[in-house]
């Protein structure tokens, strides 16, 4: 168990520890996804450059918002918030971003894969938080899930899926 700060939130220390740990894992994952989305934003090329450039920036903004909510929830529960860049690199479940890819449709497919992976992990986290009895974190994950699904819809609308 991690050292928790004192709080009057009536969840058990075990639940608060488990949820804070999970939230911080997702903060790290969202950090990686944010950086990869910005790499797509900065490096995309093709006939629809400006549309993709702006779309990727919008998605990156949503990721930062979700990351902030999750980190603040971990702190609210008495845990520490966030993780180091070194930990993000070590613990992320996302594949590394291929820096040689610039073509717009290839980048769209890479983002589709990564957004889909993260969206599916968050859906699983909704269930975990609910099983642990933390309805507020389950609700937070649901909010994050809705935005990820919407962003994924925007990405997939550019594909012939």
Automatic annotation (TrEMBL):
What keywords are annotated for this sequence in UniProt? DNA-binding
User: InterPro entries in the record, alphabetically?
Assistant: DPS_DNA-bd (IPR002177), Ferritin-like (IPR012347), Ferritin-like_SF (IPR009078), Ferritin_DPS_dom (IPR008331)
Q: Could you tell me what this protein is called? A: Starvation-inducible DNA-binding protein
Task: Please state every residue range assigned to the domain named Ferritin/DPS.
Answer: 22-160
Q: Does the keyword DNA-binding apply?
A: yes
Extract the PANTHER family matched here: DNA PROTECTION DURING STARVATION PROTEIN, GENERAL STRESS PROTEIN 20U
- What species is this protein from? Sulfobacillus thermosulfidooxidans (strain DSM 9293 / VKM B-1269 / AT-1)
Highest taxon in the source lineage: Bacteria
Q: Record's family? A: Belongs to the Dps family.
> DNA-binding among the record's keywords?
yes
One of the record's GO molecular function terms: DNA binding
């Amino acid at each position: 168990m991690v050292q928790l700060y004192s709080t009057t939130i009536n969840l058990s220390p075990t639940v608060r520890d488990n949820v804070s740990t999970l939230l911080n894992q997702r903060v790290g994952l969202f950090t990686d996804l944010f950086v990869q989305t910005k790499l797509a934003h900065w490096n995309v090329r093709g006939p629809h450059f400006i549309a993709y450039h702006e779309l990727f920036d919008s998605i990156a903004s949503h990721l930062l918002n979700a990351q902030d909510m999750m980190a603040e929830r971990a702190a609210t529960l008495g845990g520490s918030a966030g993780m180091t860049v070194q930990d993000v690199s070590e613990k992320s479940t996302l594949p590394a971003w291929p820096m040689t890819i610039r073509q717009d449709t290839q980048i769209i497919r890479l983002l589709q894969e990564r957004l889909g992976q993260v969206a599916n992990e968050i859906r699983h986290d909704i269930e975990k938080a609910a099983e642990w009895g933390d309805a507020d974190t389950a609700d937070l994950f649901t909010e994050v899930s809705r935005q990820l699904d919407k962003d994924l819809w925007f990405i997939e609308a550019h594909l012939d899926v």
